[in-house]
Every structure is written in C-alpha cells, then in structure tokens.
Amino acid sequence: MMRKMMAGALLLALLCGCFVSAPAEEAALETTEQYLAALIEAGTGAEWGQYTSFEVHVTDGLLAELSADGDALLHQLEMMAGLVEVHYNSSGTRIRYRNSVFGDALYAEDIPGLIDALNQGPFELERDIYVVCSDALYAQLTGDLWLDLRQICNDCCGMVDLNYATGLLPVVCFTPTKYYASFRMIEALHTGDLSALSAQEQEALQVAQEWAAQIVPGDAESVMRQIHDLICERVTYDTEMTLDARHSCVGALLHGRCVCDGYADTFMLLGTMCGLDVRMQIGTTPTGEELMAEIGNHVWNMVRMDGEWRMVDVTWDDGSASHDYFNLSRSAAPDSHTWTWGPEGWEH
Q: What is the pLDDT of residues 245-300, one digit of tens each?
C-alpha cells in the first residue's frame, strides 16, 4: 500500500511539472575575500568565547593559496575574522573547523604591552583571556620565556595561579584560577559590582575604604608613608591564621594579622585606592616563607613616583619598627631581596 501511495505521488508530481530535483552542491569559494566573509559569517552565528565547529568549501586554487608558507594567509584571515583558537583539518577542498573559538582579544607588542593587556581586567576566575602577540613577542614567549610566564603573571598581574596555552595562531590564552584579593577588590570598586567578591572580601573592602579615608591627600611620598605606617600600626605578622586569610588583605583588614603577601596585598589595595601607581613584587629573601604562588618566598611592593619605581617592604619594616625598607631607589635596594621580573629599570 505504501509503495502505491509513493508511486502515485511521484506520478502526480511529474504530471504537474513540479518535481523538485536534489539541491545543487554548495559552490566552492574562489577568493580570499570570499573566505574571509565565510569566516565572519561563521563567527556571527557562534557564541563568542565558546567552542564552535563549521566547514568551508574552497577551490583547489584557493586551498593552495591559503596553505602556502605554512598556512600564513589562512591564519591571517582567521585572526581578521575574530578567531582566537583554531583546530581544523581538510578533506579534499573542504576545510573543517572543530572546537574553534571566536572571541574578543587583546594585543601586545612586547612584555610591557602584555602586562598592560592582562591588567585591563576584569579579574574574573576561570575566564579565558586571549592576547594576540606580535611576531617578535610570540617568538619570545614560546621560546626562552615560556616557563617564565607564570612568574611574569604573578609579579605583574596578581595571578596567584593560572593556566596558559597557545595553538596554531600567534595567540596566548591565559586562564587565571586565583588572584590576590586586592586585584579583584580594585576591579569591583572600578565597576561598582561587588557580586564576584565573597562575603568576607566585601566586608574587608568596606574596612579598606574606612582606612583609606583616613589618609590625608598629599604628594605620592606622603601618601605612601601614611599607608605604610597605618598598616604597621594595625597589622601583626602571624603564621598561625587560616591559610588563605594570612596570605591576603582579608586577614590584615578583618583580623589585623597576616604574612608578607598579606601585607603587600593590603598596601596594593590601599595605595591604589589613594591614587598611587602600585604593584606587587614576588622574589626571594634569606628568611622568606611559603607563599600561595609557590614561585618565591617573599612579597613586597613597588610604587611609581615621578616616573621612577620605588621599593616598599612593609613586612620587614613592621618587624623592625623602622623605615629601613621604605621608598628605596634601585641603587638602594637591599642585596637580600632578589627577583626574576621587575618593573622597567628594576630587571636583574
């Protein structure tokens, strides 16, 4: 019965002249402009930052052009279309992309540019940050500096822990898994959105605002000294606290106790709130301790004043009730403090 019905329908279609043929095969793209347009169209339909798969049909001539010089033109078009991560293979003249990513990307020409890019925020955990690198920077990072990237991100960007990877494109993907609390609090103040902070961090931020309100405005040296003295007055060195709290400004602000990276984290937060250009510096000293970062054994701060970086170690000054490690120039930096990466003018 079913066969009779299908035959009848076919005969009716032929008699009416409305038989529909099979669709024609998709036309192969012939030019680089068409290929770029196809990639852009694929990106338009993809969720940015998420894996997506698609394929592009090209002529033999275009395939040869795209794959010349190690796929140089292909990768250029992919980046122009907003791709930051690609995985693909070709079957004949069909280029099949799988688990590729379209996403917003930053650009860096050199190491200082990379640091500036990573410090743009937002400082969200588990958020992929894609940085497109110049040819020179990419060669540098994927060569001698690959193992040092963790140190750079720790010293310069507050990333206590992170993963980073690269693929076929000159793009490095950074995924921070832990930031020092001061970086996330500063971002929350900047955006006005405290939702990413824990209840303790929100409480600590409120205390930090109260402390910062007590700093009398003045030149950078005066503000720096007031913050230094306030922390020394209100915070005590203590290794017996809960692990995370003692390594964070949360311990200093809520409990008045912390270890060296807690001191530096607090100075970073208060200094930034009071208009200073501050960063944390991870290094080693003869009498250091175990840090969250597991890269060095001591943390202090660097402050830029009048275009020059100055060193401040609140931890060691608090231990000796002095200003021996306050506002030191590069030439006055103690031999006891060593580091791998420092701000411009401080590199070893």
A: 889 999 999 999 999 999 999 999 999 999 999 999 988 898 777 777 677 789 99
CA torsion angle 222 224 226 227 (round to 10): 160
Reduced to 3 states, what is the DSSP secondary structure of residue 45?
coil
**Interval 125-152: pLDDT, tens:** 899 999 999 999 999 999 989 988 998 9
CA angle in degrees (0–180, nearest 5) for 117-162-287: 105
Instruction: For the beta carbon of residue 324, count every other beta carbon within 10 angstroms.
Output: 12
Q: Are residues 230 and 168 in the same domain?
A: no
Tokens standing for residue 267: 């100075």
Q: Which two tokens stand for residue 48?
A: 């940015």
pLDDT for 24 beyond 50: no
Which residue, chain included where needed, has tokens 């693909």? 88
Q: What distance in Å separates the CA atoms of residue 194 and residue 51, rounded to the nearest whole number?
A: 29
State the residue range of the domain holding 145.
105-179
pTM across the whole model: 0.81
| Residues 199 and 149 reside in one and the same domain | no
Among residues 106, 193, 103, 197, which one has the least CA distance to residue 157? 106
